[in-house]
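Onboarding guide, step 5: your first structure request.
Type a short instruction followed by the sequence, for example:

Predict the 3D structure of this protein.
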Amino acid sequence: MIGITTSYLRHVMADNGGEISVKYSIDVNGGLMLENEIIINVTTK
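The system replies with structure tokens like these:
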């Protein structure tokens, strides 16, 4: 069994861009395998 759990999700977006942040963990058979964080910065041209 593989589980994915989101511990943090935030988005701040406006007309000129913004940011999306996600923290999540992945477990295999009930044991923690990975903890990850993704931050996406959005800008306009």
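Each response can be followed by summary notes, for example: Strands lie at 2-14, 17-28, 31-43.
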